Amino acid sequence: IGYVCEATDPMVLAAQSNDILTAVVQGARKEEPNQEVRLAAINALINSLDFIKENFEREGERNFIMQVVCEATQSESSDVQVAAFQCLVRIMQTYYDKMRLYMEKALFGLTVAGMNNEDDRVALQAIEFWSTVCDEEMDLKEELLDAHEAGEQPERESYHFAELALNDILPVLLWILTKQEEDYDEDEWTVSMAAATCLSLLAQCVGNAVIQPVVPFIEANIQNENWRQREAAVMAFGSILDGPDPIVLTPLVDQALPTLISMMKDSVVHVKDTVAWTLGRICELLINCIKPEIHLNELISALVYGLQDSPRIVGNCCWSLMNLAEQLGPTIGDNVPTSPLSVFFEGIITALLQFTERSNNEANCRTSAYEAISTLAMCSANDCIPTVQRIVLTILDRLETTMAMESQILDADDRASHSELQSSLLGVLTNCIRRLSRDISQIADRIMTVVLQLLNNQSKQATTTEDAFLAIGALTSALEADFSRYAESFVPILCTALQNPAEYQLCFIAVGLIGDICRALGKDAAPYCNNLMQLLVTNLQSPILHRTVKPAILSCFGDIALAIGDAFSGYLEIVMMVLQQAGSMRADRDNYDMIEYVNTLYEGCVEAYVGIVQGLNGTPQTVLLLPYLTHVFEFIHIIAVDVNKTDSLTRSIIGLLGDLAETFGAQIKALFQQEWIPVLLREARTSRHYGSSTKETSRWAKEVSEINTAV
C-alpha cells in the first residue's frame, strides 16, 4: 500500500482514501503485535498523507490518526519510533493549521522526549520536527507581510509554536550540541549538526526571543576546558546571528570578537573550524561590529594563519575573507580610491596564491581559495589595481602550465581534478577582467591567446569551455569595439558550441556571448551574423535543446538587431514568424512551472521586439515592420490581461509600447486607441504590486504615446 501511495498521483487515490486509511491505521495501532507490520503501516501512512485531506478535515478521524502516530513514538521498536517521528514531520508540513490542539496535548512533550532519545536516529527526526515547525512559521510570517502589503488578511495564521516551546526545546538543543562526533564525516548528518541547524532556524523564526536563553550557555562554556563545551558554545553563538535584531546582537558580538579571534589558535580542529565559520557569519551578517582600526589586523592575521590548517578550516577562512571583501569593499563599477582592506590586500592575495599552488583539493579547499581570490579582486579599490593585474599574469601562467600537463593525465579522476582546476583559474580571470575593465587592454592579446589555445584543445571538458566563454564575455564587455580584432578567430568556436544542443548549458552561455559581442562590435558584427542567425533559428527548432535556452535565443535576436540596425532586415521575415510562434504558447493555470517558463519566453519575445524596433528606428527599413504590428499589439494585449504577468514582464511590454510610439507615431494611431492600453498604463502606475522602475516606465510610455500618436 505504501509503495502504491508513493508512486501514484494523490488526485487518483483520493477516491480510495477511506479504504486505504482504514487498512493503514489498523496496522499502525499499538495493539498490532508485529512491529514490522506496524513499521510498514506507519511508512504507508507517511505516503498517504497528501490524499487524505478530507479525512484530516473530520475531527474524529484526525484525532484517531494522531493518537495512533503519537502512540507509535513510544513503541519499543526504534525503527517504529523513527518512522512515527518522520510521520509527524510530514503531518506538520501538510496540516500545520490543524496542529494547535495536538501540540498542546502531546507533541511538545513527545518531541522533547524524542530529542533526548539515546538512539540518534530517533533524536534526528524529533529535531527535524522542530526545524519543520520553524520553516512553516517563517513561511507564514512571509505570507502575513505579503498580505499586509496588499492590504489583505492572510489566508492562514501562525500559532507561534516555536516561540511557545523555546524554554522546553532550547536546553535540549544546547545539550545536543555537545554530542559531537570525535572524527565525524562531513557528509554524515549527526545529531549535533541537526541541533545547530534547528537552533539557526529558531533564531530566524523567533528573533530576539532566542538570545536570553542561549547567551548564558555561551558565556559558561566558551572557555571551558572540555573542547566539546567550547565548540558547542561557539556553534550556538554562530547559529543565532541571523534572525535577532542587529542592534541587540552588536554588543554581544563586540564582547565576543576578541575571544573568537584568539580561539583560531585553539588546540582542537573541531573548535577552530566552528570559530572560522562563526567569524564568517559575523563578516557576512554584522560587518558593522568589525571596527577596522581595532579588529581588522588581528582578524585578517587569524584568517590567513588558518590557511595553514586542515582543509575544512581553510574553507571557512576563505569564506570569511570573501565576506569581508564583499562587505568592506566597493561595489563593482564604483570608482573608490581605497577601502579598509586595501592595506591588507596584497598580503592576503599572496597567501592565497601560495596556498593554491598545492596539487590536491581535499574538501574543496583549493577551489575555496581561488573563489576568495576572485571575490577579493572583484571587490577591490583602485589602489589595489596593480595587484589585480599581477593576479591576471599569475593565472595566465598557471593556465599555460595546466595545458602543458594535458598529455600526462591518465585516468578519469585526474581529468576531473584537472578540469576543476582550469575552471577555478578561469573564474578568477573572469572576475579580474570585470574589475580591471579598460585597464585590461594591455594584456588582452595574451589573455585571448591562452583562452583560444584552451578552447582549441580537443580533450577539454564542456564545463571548461563554459568558463572560458564567460572569460571571453567579460573581455568583450571590457574592450567593447576593440574586441573586433579577436572576432574572426573566436566566432567559429562559438558556432561549434551552438552546433551541440545536447550541451545546453554551454549553448546558453554561447547565446549570451553572441549578445555581448554584438553590443561590443555594433555594426561590425554584421559579417558574422549570417552563420549565427542560422544556428540560432536551427536551435530554436531543435527538439534536443533544453527549453531554458530558447528565451535567451529570442532575446539574442534583439541584441543582433540593435547592433546591426538596417542590416537586420534580411532576417526580419523568419524572426517575426518565430516570435509569433513563441508568443502563441500558453500555460495551464495550475501548472506553476509552465507559467514561469511562459513568462520567461514572453520576456524573450518582448526583448526581441524591442531590439528590432530600436535597431530599425530611423532607417528606411522601418516600414518593413508595419505589416507585423497588429500581431505585436495582440501579443502585448494577451500579456496585459494575464493575471500571472510579472513586474519585469509588465515593465518590458510597456517599454515596447513606448518604443513603438516613438518609432511609428501617428502611423499606428488606431492601434494606440485600443481601450486596454490606458488601462494597462494606469494599472502599472498606480498598483502597489509594481516597483518604482515599472511605474517610471509607464509614465514615460504614457507621455511618449500621447505626444507621438496624438492619442
From TrEMBL:
InterPro entries: ARM-like (IPR011989), ARM-type_fold (IPR016024), IMB1_TNPO1-like_TPR (IPR058584), Importin_beta (IPR040122)
Gene3D superfamilies: Leucine-rich Repeat Variant
Cellular compartments per GO CC: cytoplasm
Protein location: Cytoplasm
Keyword line: Cytoplasm, Protein transport, Repeat, Transport
GO biological process: protein import into nucleus
Keyword Repeat among record annotations: yes
Transmembrane residue ranges: none
Domain Importin subunit beta-1/Transportin-1-like TPR repeats: 298-685
Chief location: cytoplasm
Protein's UniProt keywords contain Lyase: no
Similarity comment text for this entry: Belongs to the importin beta family. Importin beta-1 subfamily.
Protein name, as recorded: Importin-95
Organism: Rhizopus stolonifer
Upper classification of the organism: Eukaryota, Fungi, Fungi incertae sedis, Mucoromycota, Mucoromycotina
